Amino acid sequence: MGWPLRVIAVSGVAAGVVLAVGLFGRFSYAPMPDEADVLNRDRYALTTAYDLLGRRVSAEEAERMKATPEGRAALLPEKGAVAIDAALVRRGREAFYGETFGNEVFLSDVMGMLDGGVGPFEVARAVLALGGGATTNLKVRMSRDVTVGDRTWRKGEEVPTGLDVAKGSPAIIGIRTFYDRGTLRMGITCALCHAAVDPASGKVVEGAPNTDLNAGLLMALSKNAGAYFMHGNMDLAAHPGDPARTVTQTDGAQAPLPDPQKFEAAAKVQVASWPPGSFDSSADRITNPTSIPSSFSAYGEPYSWSGREAVGPFKGLSSLNNNVHAANSDTTQQTAAARTLFGLDPELYLGTILQGAARAAFRYDPAGGKRPTEVLAASDPTPESPGLNRYAVLPSFPATNYMTDNGLFASVLGEPANHANNAMSAFQNLLRAPDAKPSDAEVLKTGRAVFERAGCAGCHSGPALTNNRILPVDEIGTEPTRAKAGAKMEARLSPPAMFATDTPFPLPADPTIVPIPLEGEALEQVQLGWGHAGTKGGYKVPNLVGLAWTAPYLHDSGVAVGADASNQLGVPGTVDAGVMPDPANSLRALVDRELRARVVAANAHSEKSRTARVTGEGHAFWADRQAGVSDEEQAALVAYLLSVDRLTQNVPTP
What we know:
Blueprint: H1 3-10, H2 14-24, E1 26-29, E2 48-52, E3 55-58, H3 59-65, H4 69-74, E4 81-83, H5 86-98, H6 103-110, H7 120-129, E5 139-141, E6 146-148, E7 151-153, E8 158-160, E9 175-180, E10 183-188, H8 191-194, E11 195-197, E12 204-206, H9 215-220, E13 246-248, E14 254-256, H10 260-272, E15 278-279, E16 290-291, H11 317-328, H12 338-342, H13 346-354, H14 372-379, E17 391-393, E18 408-410, H15 419-428, H16 441-453, E19 470-472, H17 473-476, H18 480-483, E20 497-499, E21 513-515, H19 520-530, E22 538-540, H20 570-573, H21 583-591, H22 593-604, H23 607-611, H24 631-643
Antiparallel strand pairs: 1-9, 2-3, 2-4, 5-8, 6-7, 9-10, 11-12, 13-14, 15-16, 17-18, 19-22, 20-21
């Protein structure tokens, strides 16, 4: 079938959907590339048969264990065991590209991603205009004027979305479109952030971060960016509204809502400050986005920028996958914990989110006679769980435990609780970066020698060039607020636990709960990752597999240099200017103090970067002339780093 016909038949963008559902009434679509359309289709071999709360068990070991009653018991779902096979990996890939866990309701009905400046028909027009070609940055015309700070985006002006469309595809990677009897919604999947299009071939690189995804700007252009206010520097009292517009709080007292227009305008500025390729995943009421990480995850534990995702199946990778949807793609689920996390009454918190909701059914009107929780309950598609997404709920909800921010596990009806997240972990752990460009063997040998001589191998050791440790923020010297983003969660903390891995969803009346052992040094590392137990928090030692695909560098995306190293400096000189960072020059800035100083200065001169706390500071470990490393040796070091496209040691693969 030719490409234009495929758009009409299966397009995941609005125009194709509307045409299709004229016949069917309901329709949803998310693109998943054929294996032939994937650049890095060569994966690690599957050698792990079970995951036991993070411990890899090979097929040979599993057979030995099955020979004893104790071994057989250890492999049971009620012990937290995940059986890994090709079917689980296939399910993981399907979920990676297609599973939203229901976030289309929050993103469409509450946040209004389709009702702001970037409308569905302009998105469809932009995809159709590609004519089957690929893009790493879909340019979409504005549907209406929207002002963000001192910048007004005019109707008809093109927005650099950073959305990726693969060659020959009729739809955007990582967007699932839903049509239900007259209602159009869009949801996001893991592939939106963790898959990218190779600009040379137009093929998909599975696991590569979408380094120019303009998520913050797209949220700013939505109708109700205020629904994400807890991820920014937003003080309700700083935007006083009409004294008559109040919320009846849980204790019966009246509390004023912030002014809808002024609050929304301020929220737009906060999210729009995020550099392309980053996302603020910490609901700490501070604007501090972090780079989207790769999903070249094998032996890269612990996970997340702080390393706080470290326990449970797949050494914390399932925890990371879960929290994307159980904590970040639906802010209504935080209502029960609002007093602990944000110092706000739950009704005031939810009323602030819903007062600007895109769909009338979800919009809180102070004169409507209902509390915000009642408004949400009246239209909630998942009344059996908090918030709008589909969650399996631990008895400890809304308390944090080190497996989940809030006691919720994003789950799919008809399969075990948290199964899709475990399946995605199995899939992601088999991904490796595309083959690196050929380099001179002697240059790479020299580069590895510099890597060792400069002390890089002290932290960047092991199969994925990480020692799997978390470093205190004072030691790494990076922006401090991110390191302690989870500090408030310590006030309501329960022991780490999860459901037995065969627990059906929806949950039975008395599901089996699996405690997750955590003590000693492992506990201390997790507490450091969360900023608990009196620590200031920390940052994990990242793995170095696939650096050619992950520029810019550091947790804040701040170490960015373009092909022109004299002028394209920092976030304002690269991604904010529509210039992709050059991996080699950006890595040079990571290890060269003179070039880094210029990068840091460029970031400091940008008000947008200052709002987002993007500095490019930290990781002051140098391989430059002052450290006794010549320019030629430095270039060899950079070449070596860019050559690492797979695990560096012969180890059992996940």
